[in-house]
């Protein structure tokens, strides 16, 4: 059973999401929160699998709340998905850098929301290729001189290669075709790379690829 916590200051939004999620045989809403402070408190208490976190909330906004969650080692298995009104919300970039696993617009189709919740729990890519590439382009535009690549010393040559392909926004299937391996093998390489680097998810792996200098601005495929 996938346990979800809903954090949004609009009760109608929470009610709509709850009705959809609770109707699924493999998903349940563990709790709701109307602001960031309450969200962090309930997350620490309940340790849900997924948090659907609105960016703009009173008391503590979703961005700050996400940082508190992702910086807490005891909550490393909690996946945070940001909720935005617009796909190009100005805070989405910082949300991903803060450790969020992805984002969804509030008018996402019901089937897409359910797919996203299940995907993020499974560790699969949540962001669509188009959104991922826009995120990467934004990161490239803001990135500074990359840090030393010492953090990548424990990776094999193949894992570095796979990480670079993740960094330019390729899916597991696209990586598999590029390297002429099976999608399962590509996914295994991605998973092992995340474990070695302590990355919470694929989105953070993209950020690390840029911060380490493994991928540079202008390498978008």
Automatic annotation (TrEMBL):
Organism: Streptomyces purpurascens
PANTHER family xref list: TRANSCRIPTIONAL REGULATORY PROTEIN NARL-RELATED (PTHR43214:SF24), TWO-COMPONENT RESPONSE REGULATOR (PTHR43214)
Modified residues (4-aspartylphosphate): 54
Keyword Transcription regulation: yes
The UniProt record lists the keyword S-adenosyl-L-methionine: no
Span of domain HTH luxR-type: 148-213
A Pfam family matched in the record: GerE
Keywords for the protein's UniProt record, in alphabetical order: DNA-binding, Phosphoprotein, Transcription, Transcription regulation
Domain annotation Response regulatory: ranges: 3-121
Protein name according to UniProt: Response regulator transcription factor
SUPFAM superfamilies for this protein: C-terminal effector domain of the bipartite response regulators, CheY-like
């Amino acid at each position: 059973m996938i346990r979800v916590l809903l954090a949004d200051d609009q009760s109608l939004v929470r009610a709509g999401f709850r009705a959809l999620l609770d109707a699924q045989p493999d998903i349940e809403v563990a709790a709701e929160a109307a602001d960031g402070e309450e969200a962090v408190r309930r997350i620490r208490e309940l340790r849900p699998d997924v948090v659907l976190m609105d960016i703009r909330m009173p008391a503590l906004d979703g961005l700050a709340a996400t940082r508190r969650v992702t910086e807490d080692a005891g909550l490393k298995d909690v996946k945070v998905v940001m909720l935005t009104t617009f796909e190009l919300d100005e805070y989405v970039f910082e949300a991903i850098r803060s450790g969020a696993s992805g984002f969804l617009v509030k008018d996402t189709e019901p089937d897409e929301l359910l797919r996203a919740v299940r995907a993020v729990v499974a560790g699969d890519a949540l962001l669509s290729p188009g959104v991922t590439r826009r995120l990467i382009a934004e990161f490239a535009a803001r990135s500074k001189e990359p840090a030393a690549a010492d953090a990548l010393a424990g990776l094999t040559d193949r894992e570095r290669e796979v990480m670079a392909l993740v960094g330019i926004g390729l899916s597991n299937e696209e990586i598999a075709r590029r390297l002429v391996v099976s999608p399962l093998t590509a996914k295994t390489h991605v998973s092992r790379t995340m474990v070695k680097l302590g990355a919470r998810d694929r989105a953070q792996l993209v950020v690390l690829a840029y911060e380490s200098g493994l991928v540079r601005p202008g390498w978008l495929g």
